[in-house]
Amino acid sequence: MAISKGLLCAAALLGFSASPAFAAPKILFVGNSLDFADWGYARYYKADTVTDLNGKAANGKTQSGTPGLFKQFAKEAGLDYDVYLETLPGQGLDAHLKTKRELLDKPWDIVVMHGYTTLDQKNPGDPALLYSTSKEMTEMLRKQNPKVVIYLSSTYSRPDTTYPAGQHWNGKPIQQMAKDVLAAYVEVAKQNNIPQANIIPLGGAFNRAIDTGFADGNPYDGIEAGKHDLWAWDHYHSSNMGYYIHALVDFGKITGKDPLSLGPNEDVAEDMGFSPEQAAAMQKIAHDTLADQQQASAR
Predict the structure, then answer these.
(1) Do 235 and 219 contact (CB within 8 A), yes or no?
(2) CATH of 19-298, one of 3.30.1490.20, 3.40.50.1110, 3.30.1360.40, 3.30.420.40
(3) Residue 36 in contact with residue 65, Cβ under 8 Å?
(4) Which residue has the higher pLDDT, 212 or 12?
(5) What is the four-CA torsion angle of 166, 167, 169, 170, rounded to 10 degrees?
(6) How far from chain centre, in Å, is Cα 161?
(7) Which residue, 249, 65, 78, 77, is CA-closest to 151?
(8) Alpha carbon 54 to chain centroid, angstroms
(9) Cβ distance 156 to 249 under 8 Å?
(10) Confidence class of residue 299 from pLDDT cuts 50, 70 and 90?
């Protein structure tokens, strides 16, 4: 797909490069059901283009999820990444280290990782487990490849931990969970000498979608006319739109390419049934989120 000179100029002004941020192609995504795209169309999207280190699921299929969307975005942009994923449903980095270490303990070029969405499944909002397991994971990866580039995915707010009574973020704005999670990943970056610019602001993109009126922040009371639901029926995992935004932010942060350069008629959006206007709106959300993050880090 051709990229207009205007978009390239805009990308340059915002600091998005016209070439990959890193030449190294071997990239591993370490996560959970937010990444293999539970309840979403993306779960098996072009699964033959990525490698699921866990092999086939119980249904005989291999998963791709948001890494598969990332791979397709990269292909459309003329980039080639060798994409791998290692995901465990409902788990944090502690479970990966305990049960999948042999799959992870290799010389990767790029690793994208995050812990459990509430920071600690047993103690929501407590970052202590994330701190210790991030340190262990980072040390293991750097021992295999001292030059490995590590990205931290700062995950999004969950309505099911916000609106129901008794949940940790109950009584707070839906955006607050993502802000608390981001604060924890900023500390993880500091503790492990990871540039704060390597934090992928997934939660920030979801918050922007709500703040700008693209998304409805409370799916429990119905979706307001003209707005969209970023979450699946369980109000926990993403909807197809949520996964699309997730992968767009990954793409923009990791490759250095402006998400707007994909264009409103790009292939993933068409495959997922989005209109060109919807695709353009979500690409702008990802673009603006990354641009704001860059401007904030420059202050």
Answers:
(1) yes
(2) 3.40.50.1110
(3) yes
(4) 212
(5) -40
(6) 19
(7) 249
(8) 20
(9) no
(10) low
Q: Is the pLDDT of residue 3 over 80?
A: no
49-98 per-position pLDDT tens digit: 999 999 998 788 999 999 999 999 999 999 999 999 999 999 999 999 99
CA gap 280, 245 in Å, rounded: 11
Q: What is the pLDDT of residue 11?
A: 44
- In single-letter form, the type of residue at position 135 comes to K
Q: How far apart are CA 74 and CA 150, in angstroms?
A: 18
Other CB atoms within 10 A of residue 57 CB:
13
